[in-house]
Amino acid sequence: MSNNSSLTQFLLLAFTDRRELQLLHFWLFLAISLAALLANGLILSAVACDHHLHTPMGFFLLNLSLTDLGCICTTVPKAMHNSLQNTTTISYMGCAAQAFFFLFFISAEYFLLTIMCYDRYVAICKPLHYGTLLGSRACAHMAAAAWATGFLSALLHTANTFSLPLCQGNALGQFFCEIPHILKLSCSHSGYLREIGLLGVGACLGFVCFVFIVFSYVQIFRAMLRIPSQQGRHKAFSTCLPHLAVVSIVISTSFFAYLKPPSIFSPSLDLVLSVLYSVVPPALNPFIYSLRNQELKDALRKMMTRCFSGETRCRVSAM
Questions:
Q1: Does the structure show a pLDDT above 50 at 317?
Q2: CA nearest neighbour of 244 among 292, 278, 203, 300
Q3: pLDDT tier at 108 (50, 70, 90 boundaries)?
Q4: Which end of the chain is more exposed for a tag (fewer CB within 10 A), N or C?
Q5: Across all residues in the chain, what is the average pLDDT?
């Protein structure tokens, strides 16, 4: 297999060779995906239909749910299909599409989490300027920038990676198509360095976002300590806890997956880590936000009450 002109499919990493465990994996991923689809769908409906959630945080939460749905729908269905059919193949174009959409949604999610951190910073540290700094137009522009940056990043990485000649076989050490694993099959030194350069730029941008998040939370915690009442500090911390939990899960799992020491390399460990950063956060995010956001819980409760009573009308007003 000399180059990608003759490459028609890739081989994904199987979770197990035992048929019983393959079926168990299928049902487990089915349960996770259905839970994620239901939870994120409920959040989307609640934010759209309840005017109390037409706030900057509600708007960003809606966008975050869209990225979560995108991540789940990109990686999980093919893994479920392969487990059910006892196969590991994915077509060349299917692999390119999967790599593009996963990078698109995961990048957009990371940028949205950075923006949501800014929302919490303004709400706690500069409450008098909240309406000015986070008006409807500003929120729309920031969300559009997150989606556009994710799209451009995914397009550049996918176009460059899949234009490289691949001569190291077609077996990927991952259960879905991911850019770093495809790069290992490349035999083009210049193209490989070009992609490494793009990854370096993306890593620097991600590091800037990480520093911004850390700096913002340092300022947030300092502002919390100046709040005179314990009830006020608890309320301020409760508004930040869901975002802080989601950011911690996303950053810790992805950082450990790519920055772990080579001495602890293991295909099984890599497989578990890839599930942790690609499947678990999109499934957990809606539950984390629902448990700590009283307005969201009230909106979901009212929506479910209307559904059971037969009232399906949804009124949407401007943010």
A1: no
A2: 292
A3: very high
A4: N
A5: 82
3-state secondary structure of 163: coil
Distance CA 47, CA 49 (A): 6
- Alpha carbons 317 and 47: distance in angstroms, whole number: 11
Task: Tell me 52's DSSP state.
Answer: G
Query: How do residues 269-291 score in pLDDT, each as one tens digit?
Result: 777 778 877 888 888 888 777 66
Q: List pLDDT tens digits, range 240-261.
A: 777 787 888 777 777 776 666 6
Assess contact for 50 and 302: CB atoms under 8 A.
yes
Q: What is the Cα–Cα distance from 281 to 273, expressed in whole angstroms?
A: 12
**Hey, what are 192's tokens?**
């490989």
Q: Which amino acid is at 51?
A: H
Strands (E) in 93-250, as ranges, are none
The residue assigned the tokens 């360095």 is 193
Alpha carbons 126 and 315: distance in angstroms, whole number: 31
Helix (H, G, I), strand (E, B) or coil at 232: helix
Distance CA 312, CA 304 (A): 10
